[in-house]
Write a structure and sequence with these properties.
It is a single chain. This protein is α+β, with helices and mostly antiparallel strands. It has 3 domains: about 10-65, no CATH class; about 85-175, no CATH class; about 190-220, no CATH class. Helix content is about 40%, strand content about 20%. It has helices spanning about 5, 15-20, 25-35, 45-55, 80-90, 125-130, 135-140, 140-160, 165-180, 190; strands at about 65-70, 75-80, 95-100, 105-115, 120-125, 205-210, 215-220. The strands form 3 sheets. A 3-stranded antiparallel β-sheet has the order 3-4-5. α2 crosses α4 (about 45-55). The longest helix has 18 residues, at about 140-160. The chain is globular and about 55 Å long. It starts with a helix and ends with a strand.
Length: about 220
């Protein structure tokens, strides 16, 4: 018998995740789709979230992780502050964290220590750069700034990739929406190098815009 066939079949990420929570696989998918996405999602987006969830061993039902669908059928995984605290505290090399606030609350520094490094990782975040016009930032600016510093320090100290806090995720989704918008008509090279010569719009070459890459192709009109 083929040696590969003898190997035990590796369980799928869905089966592993369902077993971890002790729930039925099909019911788990329906529940995640209904609760862990900000808006509707495709099966591919749902699978992507499950992979990230299992990678970091987070719980989507306690809002440790959820996701925004993006415009390219992908996702922007969002990890709440409780989720960040979990993955940092459960990291085998984590050796403590320290915060330092400025007196006026305009800055917060987070320092994370690792057992396997001689030097700590420190990140300072500034209120004027992070504050947003939302209820949490209005009512608890110091706490929100501390969360922001903690997340950014964790990303650098442990190399957590592909996950974001809520503020960063919203900015990414908004930026994606803007980049997908049609581009304004750009002047042609002839028009730019015309040296002030007046050009009749009817004589200008037709331009076809490609929002995906911003490249303009010129179609020369028949003479």
């Amino acid at each position: 018998m083929n040696e590969v066939a003898k190997q035990e079949k590796r369980p799928s990420v869905l089966a592993t995740m369902a077993a971890r929570f002790g729930v039925d696989e099909n019911k788990m998918l329906d529940c995640i789709k209904a609760t862990a996405f900000k808006g509707g999602c495709t099966n591919e987006q749902l699978m992507a979230l499950c992979i990230v969830t299992e990678q970091y061993k987070l719980n989507p039902w306690t809002k440790e992780i959820y996701a925004f669908p993006d415009k390219n059928n992908g996702i922007v995984p969002v990890v709440g502050v409780d989720g960040w605290a979990r993955i940092v505290n459960e990291h085998p090399q984590f050796d403590g964290v320290q915060f330092s606030d400025s007196e006026d609350g305009s800055a917060c520094t987070c320092t994370i220590y690792r057992k396997d490094r001689a030097h700590a990782t420190s990140v300072t975040e500034y209120l004027k750069e992070c504050s947003r016009n939302t209820q949490p930032w209005t009512s608890h600016p110091r706490r929100m700034l501390r969360h922001k510093a903690f997340v950014q320090a964790a990303r650098l100290a442990f190399g957590f990739a592909g996950i974001y806090d809520a503020d960063d995720a919203e900015v990414i989704v908004a930026a994606t929406a803007v980049s997908d918008a049609p581009y304004a008509r750009k002047p042609t090279a002839t028009q730019l190098l015309g040296g002030g010569k007046k050009t009749n719009p009817a004589d200008a070459p037709e331009t076809t815009e490609h929002p995906q890459d911003g490249v303009a192709e010129e179609k020369e009109t028949a003479q």
